[in-house]
Structures are given as structure tokens and as C-alpha cells.
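Researcher: Let's run the pair from yesterday's discussion. Sequence first, then C-alpha cells, for each.
Model: Starting with the first of the pair.
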Amino acid sequence: MNIKKIAFIAFAQVAACGAAIAASAEEQAGIDFGIEDQTDAYVLETVTPKYPVEMLQRGIQGSTLLMLRVDEQGEVSDVRVLSSSSPAFSKSAIKSVKNWYFQPGTKNGRAVAQTVTVPVDFLIDDLQMPALASR
């Protein structure tokens, strides 16, 4: 191996160790590096969407992908359909998701509003028999 290469590798390793030691000392001193502590919103409570009767009678399954805003209190607003296999599924999914409750996302320890994407699937196999009998 070339001496210049060895010297460069050794210098890079020393520099990396020095940076790690310096970072550790700065962190202990409470210096803000501008790195944000952020978490994403997640679902706490859902309301099962009603299966559209006409789709159920025809044996049609499907899905809807929604984009929605979760505010600082975890409440849903501004629901939009990104894609859907049927307008009937979209309508039912929107009505359901408006009643969902989220743990809001955070930024540096404070609750913040976020936009999230939520899939809502309509599968006949997932239905319970009493739900079918009540229609």
C-alpha cells in the first residue's frame, strides 16, 4: 500500500474520532445542533367504515387512500381522496375517518399539526355476520 494512502486513511480516522469526541463534549455542554426531535402522528381510535350496501350486494371489495390533516389535539380535518376503487367507498371512508382520533405528531416536544396518508380497505371477509344480518 502506498505511504500517502496510509497517511490519508490514518488522518481520516483521527479526524473522525476527534469529531466524535468534540460532538460528545458539545452535547454534554447542552449546545443545540439544530437537530429536531420529531415524531409522526399515529392513530389512537378508529371508527369502522360502513360497507356500502350496493357494493356488498354485488360482492365488490375495494380500497380508498385518504390524505388528511391531524391538528395539535389529534383531531382530523381537511380529508381528501388520493385514490379510490369506487366513489361509494370514498364517501364511507371519509365519513369514518372524520371520527378517528390521533396522537398528534410532535416537534421538539410540542404537538404539531401534520398531514398524514391513511389507507381504508373494504373487505367482505372482514365483516362480521351480525353486521350482514342487520341490513
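Model: Moving on to the second of the pair.
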Amino acid sequence: MSDWNGVSDMWLARTLGAFAGACVSLVYMLPKSAQEAATRFLSGVTCGLVFGGPAGVWLAEKLEIATALSPSEILLAGSSAASLGAWWGLGAAARIAGRLGRETVSARGVIVLTPGERDETAG
């Protein structure tokens, strides 16, 4: 195992951060269905794994704490932040798209029902 030279530690920090960010997101914005939960969780973990390094470095530099943290801590924090951000972004986008699919807002800000909803309310 000495051939790894710390690579496994970095992947462990990256993976734990990605999973932690996705799990914390479950507490803040509950999904409406199992499909939404699976989609948002997998995209959160993927974003945490892919963008964890750059996000961690950016956060550490912005907060001016890069010298006080180890590379594993920076990677863990970055993966968590990237995963959490992806979860929130995808969840908000799904809810907005769902609302836009059901109703249309006119130029005056009045909600106009789609043809299917007009039929339901008329009967």
C-alpha cells in the first residue's frame, strides 16, 4: 500500500466531503419523490468529487485560512461545499421548472392557468 503515496487519503477526503454535503442537503431541502432524491444526491456527489479541489482552494483563499489547513481539510471542505451547492441548485431549478410548467405569468404579473387547469377548475 505504500505505492499510493497519500492518493487514497485525498480520495477518501474528497468522497467523504461529497457525501457529507449531499447528506446535509437532505436536512435543509427535502425532496418530493424518491426519483428527485436519487437524482439530486447523485449529482451532488458527482459535483463534490469533480469540483471539490478547486472549490476548496477557492474557499480557503477567500477566507484567508489556506495556511492553517491541510490539503485534506481543504479538499474535504471544498467537496462538501460543491456537493451542497449542486444539491441546492438542482433542487431549486426543479421546483421552478415545475411551477413554470403548471402556470404562466402574464406581463402584468397575473397568473394564467394552462388549458388543462382551466378545464379542471371550470368543472
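Researcher: Give me one sentence on the second I can quote.
Model: The chain has four helices and two strands.
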